[in-house]
Specification:
The protein has 11 helices and 8 strands. The chain is α/β, with parallel strands linked by helices. The protein has 2 domains: about 170 residues, Rossmann fold (3-Layer(aba) Sandwich), CATH 3.40.50.300; about 70 residues, Conserved Hypothetical Protein Ylqf, Chain: A, domain 2 (Orthogonal Bundle). Strands 1, 2, 3, 4, 5, 6, 7 and 8 form an 8-stranded mixed sheet that branches. Helix 3 links the parallel strand 2 and strand 3. Helix 10 crosses helix 11. The longest helix has 15 residues. It is elongated and about 75 Å long. About 0% of the residues have low confidence.
């Protein structure tokens, strides 16, 4: 297993900005990648979000194993979170969010009501690690009908609020959390889903690690997708060579173009062309 590490220098600034933003909100809407729901969380968010209502969205759920999606929803609910599976590109699951927001903030809404504050919108912030789909989600959830409510008295200048409906206002800046991965497996999962910059990763190593996982957990997908037989092939690298032949990936002199075939395999996984795959089992 290759070791995938990446620590961008501006994570401290992003975290500080988020600490400021969290003071203004009632609810944190945390996006995770449904294919790796734990690896794509940042443990800091539980500390940052203490005493805030919480909603976890399993984004890109159409790319993940449907059975495992259900397991992960149950897991997060057992941890005290509201949880919904969505696809922010197509809008699938978005309608279920409003009731989940009301449920997550039920105690706050009840407190407001007792104080005589009726219909004050829930103020929410969207948080998540890079490439998990925060901006796409905000655009889809907000839709075209949203209006930015601008600065309000008592609210930090420059913060833009989007009025989604009479019940929810969204802070327009997505909270960026950087993944923490002391665990090599977490780093590898993040590399698979594209949350680590591809420029610093060896595509052939990543493809080999992905093939090993697929051969263990989703046997047959590689054979089916590339019209090859891996039955008697033990090494992942040799499987890539077979993909080279199947997909006609050759360098000059008919040498197999390992890097090109590796990129195809990784892209086929990320786009869902290999099938619906979840990288993490819910054993909790």
């Amino acid at each position: 297993m290759a070791n995938y590490q990446w620590y961008p220098g501006h994570m401290t600034k992003a975290k500080r900005m988020m600490q400021e933003d969290i003071k203004l909100i009632d609810l944190i809407i945390e996006l995770v990648d449904a294919r790796a729901p734990l690896s794509s969380r940042n443990p800091d968010i539980d500390e940052l979000g203490k005493n805030k209502s919480r909603l976890i969205l399993l984004n890109k759920s159409d790319l993940a194993d449907a059975y495992r999606n259900k397991q992960w929803l149950e897991y997060f609910k057992s941890q005290g979170f509201q949880a919904v599976e969505i696809n922010s590109k197509t809008g699938a699951g978005i309608k279920a969010i409003n009731s989940a927001v009301q449920e997550a903030c039920r105690e706050k809404i009840e407190r407001d009501r007792k104080r005589g504050i009726i219909n004050r919108p829930v103020r929410a912030m969207v948080a998540g690690i890079p490439n998990v789909g925060k901006s796409t989600f905000i655009n889809t959830y907000a839709g075209k009908a949203c209006t930015k409510t601008g600065n309000k008295p008592g609210v930090t200048k420059g913060k833009q609020w989007i009025r989604l409906n009479k019940n929810v206002e969204l802070l327009d800046t997505p909270g960026i959390l950087w993944p923490k991965f002391e665990d090599a497996q977490v780093g590898m999962n993040l590399a698979f889903i594209g949350s680590i910059n591809d420029d610093i990763i060896n595509a052939d190593e990543l493809a080999c690690d992905l093939i090993k996982f697929l051969q263990s957990e989703y046997k047959g997908l590689i054979d089916e997708r590339y019209d090859i037989s891996t039955e008697n092939i033990a090494e992942a690298y040799d499987i890539i060579k077979s993909v080279c032949i199947s997909r006609r990936c050759f360098l000059k002199g008919e040498a197999p173009d390992i890097m090109k075939a590796s990129a195809i395999i990784i892209d086929d996984f990320r786009s869902g062309r290999l099938g619906r795959i979840t990288l993490e089992k819910c054993d909790k």
